[in-house]
Amino acid sequence: MLKSMALVALLFGAAAFAAVQTPAAAPVTVLMKTSKGDITLELYPAKAPLTVKNFLSYVDAKFYAGTVFHRVIRGFMIQGGGLTPDFLEKPTKPPIRNESGNGLRNARGWVAMARTEDLHSATAQFYINTVDNFELDRSKYCVFGRVVVGLDVVDAIEAVPTGTVKGYDDAPRQPVTIVSVARVPAK
């Protein structure tokens, strides 16, 4: 009788534990329309939940519409999402906690949060790696997604002529604008 009760308690406990488990968050797809073409990103909330939630809050608020890729370095990355075509910084929400070390890497075509020297300073700006930048993993830059369609557009942005524009080095001489960023409905 005691063995039966122990087995029932064990089974009940396992069922209760299973009931509170949540499945891993499914990837989220967003479409970024730029003046150079479209880029489709797949974001990984199971790996970087705070970062993806933060990025999507800017997407849902249409914050990125009209911002530019303001930093383009050949053989490194393209950065955008925080400045207007006049190179004025848009006001952002408070910084988020860094989620680097989540198993995602700063490899070609992967998306990460830009930040200052402060580890927990990322807000809205992001970058797309144009080559493998694994040294950025050691520097704890948080990767949260990847380009699934449009790497040719990333390469086209990387190839634009750059210089110093309004005090910003490595800035495109002609603006590369983010027209819009929106979620793609799940299939």
What does this structure look like?
This protein has 187 residues and is an alpha+beta fold. The protein has one domain (24-183): Cyclophilin-like (Cyclophilin, Beta Barrel), CATH 2.40.100. It has helices at residues 2-20, 49-60, 135-138, 151-158; strands at residues 28-34, 37-43, 67-73, 77-83, 110-113, 126-129, 143-149, 162-165, 168-172, 177-183. The strands form 2 sheets. The chain has an 8-stranded antiparallel barrel. It has a two-stranded antiparallel ribbon with strand order 8-9. Strand 8 (162-165) and strand 9 form a beta hairpin.
Write the layout of secondary structure elements.
Blueprint: H1 2-20, E1 28-34, E2 37-43, H2 49-60, E3 67-73, E4 77-83, E5 110-113, E6 126-129, H3 135-138, E7 143-149, H4 151-158, E8 162-165, E9 168-172, E10 177-183
Antiparallel strand pairs: 1-2, 1-10, 2-7, 3-4, 3-10, 4-6, 5-6, 5-7, 8-9
Largest sheet: 8 strands, antiparallel, barrel
Count of discrete alpha- or pi-helical segments spanning 4 or more residues: 4
- Euclidean distance between termini CA atoms: 51 Å
Under the CATH scheme, which architecture would be assigned? Beta Barrel
CATH-defined superfamily: Cyclophilin-like
Oligomer: single chain
Q: What is the gist of this entry?
A:
The chain is of the alpha+beta class and 187 residues long.
Task: Give keywords.
single chain, 187 residues, Cyclophilin, eight-stranded antiparallel beta barrel, 4 helices
